[in-house]
Write a structure and sequence with these properties.
single chain, Rossmann fold, globular, 458 residues, eight-stranded mixed sheet
Length: 458
């Protein structure tokens, strides 16, 4: 073991003989440990809710002052979490939020829930993880647990986060504790939320694993312990790569079956009647959300460092990223059949969220569909009952507009209505009734019986 850190003995106790592991273990067991959560978005805020519901105090951190202000006023900024939930979380001083990262020292356990996007060359952008780790390192004190939840490639916790935290001289597993536990949040899913989804946990060493498992064990239905952070990191990548590859398969079949005059959605419905050996995945206009369009590329990137290729993953990525182009070509063909070019045609997208019934636009294919249509000269607008104004997106800074009100007159004035997200709020029969052309990428109009000659599936 390395030489003694000032104020800490060789057995991991401080100058008074207190064992940091035992002390934190007792605090977690008695629900006295304060949890700090960095990143109060679609992962961090529901996680904070899970802890406060169990009577555990949470201090949230975010760089967005608007989020901090709203929480301070008891307001929510996420659709499936109401204002009443925020007010309940703040009751009895169980939840507070700040953009002052100096307060990280107040937390006994710190959970990192920040974005892990791709850069312009589709390589991992770990800048949010690194800046979070640096902020923690500046205030890291003996007896703290740090858990990374942000999805990333295997090795990030050990090779990126650990050196930053250890730079000040504290020793992992003795003075502080480190683990990885991948987020599994599914915004808008009525059947599963943070407390009802099993939590995979991989600790840097046994003490870290025990503490992280104890912490999550108080708020989730089950903790699945694995042997290392790398296994936990790889688990998350596998989950999302599995989905990306299967979605690519049905997207490819959609294009093939379309040429053959076969409805791929009907095929899938028939196939899923088999009670074993088949799981239904559905095609769409492109991948969306913060996980599936991004995570497989993290694995592809790290594979190159091991002189390995991931041909299966890369092929799936090519198919999925080509879908917006396919949809635009279908729009062009549909307009052409009516004697109209895309240039100058009015096209409205229904739904800008990446999935139905949520207000989350992250990586939504709607943005690329908009950009592609505009490049071809279309006059583009959108409607989304969950997204009244398009947020600033890092890859689409010029796409700033407000949702248009759907009226019979508005729909009749559009040359094409593109169904990009099948929100439950839409009355599809009514939309078809008042529109001249529908391009449906989600099979949303499946049950519409009148006006089917107006509908083109894409």
């Amino acid at each position: 073991m390395s030489a003694k850190i000032e104020g800490t003995t060789r057995d991991g106790s401080d100058a008074t003989g207190q064992d940091h592991h035992s002390a934190l273990r007792a605090m977690i067991a008695e629900k006295r440990a304060k949890v700090g959560i960095i990143g109060l978005g679609y992962v961090g805020l529901p996680l904070a809710r899970a802890f406060t519901t169990k009577g555990i105090s949470v201090l949230g951190f975010d760089t967005d002052p608007n989020k901090i202000s709203k929480i301070g006023r008891g307001e929510s900024y996420i659709g499936h979490i109401g204002d009443d939930v925020i007010r309940s979380m703040r009751a009895e001083n169980r939840f507070d939020a700040t953009d002052d990262f100096r307060r990280l020292a107040e937390a006994d356990a710190i959970i990192i829930c920040v974005p892990t996007p791709l850069n312009e060359t589709r390589e991992p952008d770990l800048s949010y993880i690194i800046s979070s780790a640096q902020a923690i390192a500046e205030r890291l004190r003996p007896g703290q647990l740090v858990v990374l939840e942000s999805t990333t490639y295997p090795g990030t916790t050990r090779d990126v986060v650990l050196p930053i935290l250890a730079k000040g001289g504290l020793k992992a597993g003795t003075d502080f504790f480190l683990a990885f536990s991948p987020e599994r949040e599914d915004p808008g899913n009525p059947n599963f939320s943070a407390p009802t989804i099993p939590k995979v946990v991989g600790g840097l060493e046994p003490r870290s694993l025990e503490l992280a498992s104890m912490l999550y064990g108080q708020v989730v239905v089950r903790v699945e312990e694995v042997s290392s952070p790398e296994v936990a990191e790889a688990c998350k990548i596998l989950e999302n790569t599995y989905r990306a590859i299967n979605i690519a398969l049905v997207n490819e079949l959609k294009m093939l079956y379309d040429k053959m005059g076969i409805d791929v959605w009907e095929v899938i419905d028939a196939a899923k009647s088999k009670p074993f050996g088949f799981q239904a995945f559905y095609p769409g206009p492109g991948l969306g959300g913060h996980c599936i369009p991004i995570d497989p590329f993290y694995l592809t990137w790290i594979a190159r460092k091991f002189n390995s290729s991931t041909r299966f993953i890369e092929l799936a990525g090519e198919i999925n990223t080509s879908m917006p182009h396919y949809v635009v070509s279908k729009i062009g063909d549909a307009l052409n059949d009516k004697g109209k070019p895309i240039k100058g045609s009015k096209v409205t997208l229904l739904g800008m969220a990446y999935k139905k019934d949520v207000d989350d636009p992250r990586e939504s294919p709607g943005f690329e569909l908009m950009e592609l249509l505009m490049e071809k000269g279309a006059i583009v607008s959108y409607n989304d009952p969950h997204i009244p104004v398009l947020p600033l997106m890092r890859h689409y800074p010029k796409l700033r507009m407000a949702s248009q009100e759907l009226t019979p007159q508005y729909l009749a004035g559009q040359d094409c209505i593109l169904i990009a997200t099948d929100h439950s709020a839409y009355d599809w029969a009514w939309v078809v009734q008042h529109s001249s052309l529908i391009v449906d990428t989600r099979n949303a109009t499946k049950k519409v019986t009148v006006g089917r000659d107006k509908i083109v599936k894409a």
